[in-house]
Inverse folding.
């Protein structure tokens, strides 16, 4: 059994994904150790990211003091998850992740994983895009990275035997300073509350996906 | 075995998630039927969305004619995936999804799944936010929804025995009109190329997640 599987309590993809629901009321007595939280973040961070820049940053909120501070930048509607969760992982977008773009891809080349021609193509195509990008594009790019890693964290939490809830009902101005991060570098994206469900969550339905799908002629 | 599991070729979460890599070269001879594509989209759409508004729209590109049209709005760097994939699912954000907000949540109440008090709280908290939202916020909100459903589609593709690649290297002005969608309503987010890998993809490494994690004091 691979190292990764040993960490998982539930390796059943269909159950983890299709029986996932947003839990907003957790058992407040359940603690999750920081080692396990860090492991879950690392597992979630196997998600893809634009140019493998991993434009995400995680702030864990898992003490009463941290929760009190954190709630200053959270909408009241989301207090139940924050109060009862074992931990919240807030995911912020890093709009300066491309500063190390050259190092990241030079290393891939030095490790012999891509050709010089491919390295030049990658550096020639995307690095100029990032170096000349508008703040809006860098926020958009980082928002995508943070959302895909957030989706994996929701699934990884279930695979570790917990439930979770993603929320963006926050104060977008206050959040980054509240977390002690640099507002010039980081943008707020979403919080993921993690813990053991204390009650059966609301099972929402979905539109028929066919009504949201076109086939390009 | 649940209905969902029957569709899956690979229900091993750890393998699907941790052994996933971005494939850019597919076997061009492999076809994926539209029924199976539609099923994969429906399975991916079990993803969460802000207020369950499902602010995503899917356009499938799976014929030579559609690919030729689609490539007019794709960066050359991503032509290999487009040319060789069995299909591309382009995910666009729906910035008008909240127009049906009241209907969505009234139905949840009429189905007896939430109390009147909860309905009033939901409608009172978020509907005004959406009705007064800036275009930027609606784009941000839809981008998150499209990214989480995109992440699930990457995993669902592997669970169906395929591989996939997410890309946003596109022409952001041209894409929506090229897909025949209303640019006043939809915003481009990402394409997901799906097929059978024709060669072993590049295995990228990740930063140590501990270096990207803080614990709020």
């Amino acid at each position: 059994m691979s190292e990764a599987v040993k960490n998982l309590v539930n390796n059943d993809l269909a159950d983890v994904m299709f029986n996932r629901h947003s839990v907003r009321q957790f058992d407040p007595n359940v603690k999750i150790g920081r080692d396990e939280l860090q492991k879950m973040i690392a597992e979630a961070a196997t998600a893809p990211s634009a140019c493998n820049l991993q434009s995400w940053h995680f702030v864990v909120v898992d003490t009463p003091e941290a929760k009190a501070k954190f709630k200053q930048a959270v909408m009241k509607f989301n207090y139940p998850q924050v109060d009862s969760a074992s931990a919240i992982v807030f995911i912020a977008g890093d709009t300066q992740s491309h500063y190390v773009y050259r190092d990241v891809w030079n290393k891939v080349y030095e490790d012999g994983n891509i050709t010089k021609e491919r390295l030049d193509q990658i550096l020639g195509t995307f690095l100029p895009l990032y170096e000349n990008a508008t703040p809006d594009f860098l926020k958009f790019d980082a928002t995508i990275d943070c959302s895909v890693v957030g989706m994996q964290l929701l699934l990884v939490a279930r695979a570790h035997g917990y439930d979770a809830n993603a929320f963006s009902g926050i104060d977008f101005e206050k959040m980054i300073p509240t977390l002690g991060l640099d507002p010039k570098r980081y943008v707020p994206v979403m919080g993921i509350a993690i813990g053991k469900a204390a009650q059966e969550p609301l099972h929402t339905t979905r539109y028929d996906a066919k009504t949201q799908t076109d086939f390009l002629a």
In short: Chain A touches chain B through 83 residues (CB under 8 Å). The radius of gyration of chain A is 19 Å.
